[in-house]
Write a structure and sequence with these properties.
Number of domains: 2
Distance between the termini: 62 Å
Bound molecules: N-hydroxyamidocarboxymethyldethia coenzyme *A
Low-confidence stretches: none
Radius of gyration: 22 Å
Helix content: 55-70%
Strand order of the largest sheet: 1-2-3
Order of helices and strands: HHEEEHHHHHHHHHHHHHHHHHH
CATH superfamily of the largest domain: Citrate Synthase, domain 1
Mean pLDDT: 97
Number of strands: 3
Shape: globular
Largest sheet: 3 strands, antiparallel
CATH class of the largest domain: Mainly Alpha
Number of helices: 20
């Protein structure tokens, strides 16, 4: 057993009695009341999921295992000379709640490198897609195609004690987390570099190897590390994390779950917003003939988008009520590394004008930028200009959090998810509109 798996086992053993006590002693205690608005309105704010991997405060933003993003970036070990920490270190933190030492991270990297190899048929599945297919479709299908590799599925079919469900799930998660960047890189190379080749460098970590596989020079390795860490988790209620959890709750294995997670992330109100931001900024560019627009010009453009009934991509959030710290961290990165980049200037003018316009319009509960408002600008700067691909990057990062959650779901024996639905008639009767 690796050090990570052993530590995880100890943490699971220590945690199980807490859940048992909550259920035994407080199973009937009411913690929520639910309004009609919440029931009709996408279950917004109903506390009905438990996770210890991350928590999203509306005003502070995300914390991973209790640590703010600034603390995560500061405390996790970094590769020599790098500005950003090892992604493998974040995975260790998400799984165990502990900041790993460099040696502990090295062991995770060693284990992961040995799991990176893709079965041959996965390349064939990817190759079978026409180049016009959206990369998220290819990613989802490639992950799904690997379902036959599931250790959980195999062991379950042979008869597996519930108490041990987490163990083969951990093996599946480690396999998938190691392989998904390779799948992503192969999709990138096939679609945009027209080379059906992906060279993995076993001496490199998650972020370094990803940059090397798609052949983008330093400091893109640090951009990749930052990007995957920032996108890893956003507590459990968002569409991608919730989808992954929901599918896994029926004991479908992680390949089914992560493929579903990817499909949820592919919507423009969620992960695809990073693509939409860049597509929209290109429209601004076309309009202003490559000149950076003035604030007035940008205000007009934003108003036109709103007046045509579209949303401003990269702004607003279902939970957050202030600027997303994931946005701020990327903005600080831009100020440090690409202050003169034209697209960054576009994004910055948008930051100056959009919140006021949304506030004035009075509809959006949160007028501030989210993670997607800035992320494409950085990718574009370093040469990754194919914005259709940006949500694949998001998916690779998000898999870290969703897989961590699924392992813990299995360890704590969380049951199959099954909320109750009611009819409109029933709702009308409940509030006294109908007898
Ligand atoms: N532009 C224009 N209108 C917006 C808006 C925006 N950026 N954000 C919210 N609104 C509108 C909503 O469409 C809604 O209008 P209607 O009443 O006409 O339906 C109204 O304001 C109230 O919405 P809300 O309660 O503030 O927001 P929701 O919780 O319903 O939705 C969304 C949250 C993120 C989906 C929303 O803010 C949005 O569409 N933003 C733009 C797309 C985007 O950036 N998505 C990525 C979010 C972060 C993420 O998940 N990343 O992966």
């Amino acid at each position: 057993m690796t050090g990570l798996k052993q530590k995880l086992y100890e943490k699971i053993e220590a945690h199980r009695p807490r859940i048992k006590r909550l259920l035994d002693e407080h199973g009937e205690t009411v913690i929520n009341s639910v309004t009609v608005q919440q029931v009709i309105g996408g279950m917004r704010g109903i506390k009905s999921l438990v996770t210890d991997i991350s928590y999203l405060d509306p005003y502070e933003g995300i914390r991973y295992r209790g640590y703010t993003l600034d603390e995560v970036f500061q405390k996790l070990p970094k590769p020599p000379g790098a500005e950003m920490p090892y992604v493998e270190g974040l995975f260790y933190l998400l799984l165990t709640g502990d900041i790993p030492t460099k040696e502990e991270v090295d062991e995770v990297i060693y284990d992961s490198v040995n799991r990176r190899q893709l079965p041959r048929y996965v390349y064939e599945v990817i190759d079978a897609f026409p180049n016009q297919s959206h990369p998220m479709v290819i990613l989802s299908a490639a992950v799904m195609s690997m379902q036959r590799e599931s250790v959980f599925n195999l062991k379950y079919a042979r008869g597996l004690n519930k108490i041990d469900f987490w163990d083969p799930t951990y093996e599946d998660a480690m396999n998938l987390v190691s392989k998904i960047p390779v799948i992503g890189a192969y999709i990138y190379n096939k679609l945009y570099r027209k080379t059906k080749y992906v060279y993995q460098d076993p001496t490199l970590d998650f972020g370094g190897n990803f940059a090397s596989m798609i052949d983008i020079d330093k400091p893109y390795d640090d951009v990749a590390r930052m990007y995957f860490i920032l996108h890893a988790d956003h507590e459990s209620g968002n569409v991608s994390a919730h989808t992954g959890h929901l599918i896994a709750s029926s004991l479908s294995d992680v390949y089914y779950s992560i493929s579903g997670m990817i499909n949820g992330l592919a919507g423009p109100l969620h992960g695809l917003a990073n693509q939409e931001v860049l597509r929209w900024i290109q429209d601004v560019r076309l309009r202003f003939g490559d000149k950076v627009p003035s604030k007035d010009q940008m205000q007009k453009f934003v108003m036109e988008t709103l007046d045509s009934g579209q949303v401003i991509p990269g702004y607003g959030h279902a939970v957050l009520r202030k600027t997303d710290p994931r946005y701020s961290i990327q903005r600080d990165f831009c100020i440090k590394h690409l202050p003169d980049d034209d697209l960054f200037k576009y994004a910055d003018i948008l930051y100056q004008v959009v919140p006021d316009i949304l506030l004035e319009q009075g509809k959006a509960k949160n007028p501030w930028p989210n993670v997607d408002a800035q992320s494409g600008v950085i990718q574009w700067h370093y040469g990754l200009v194919q914005y259709d691909y940006y949500t694949v990057l998001f998916s690779i990062g998000r898999a870290l959090g969703v897989l961590s959650n699924i392992i813990w779901d299995r360890a704590l024996g969380y049951p199959i998810e099954r909320p109750k639905s009611i009819t409109t008639d029933m709702l009308e009767q409940m509030v006294g509109i109908k007898k």
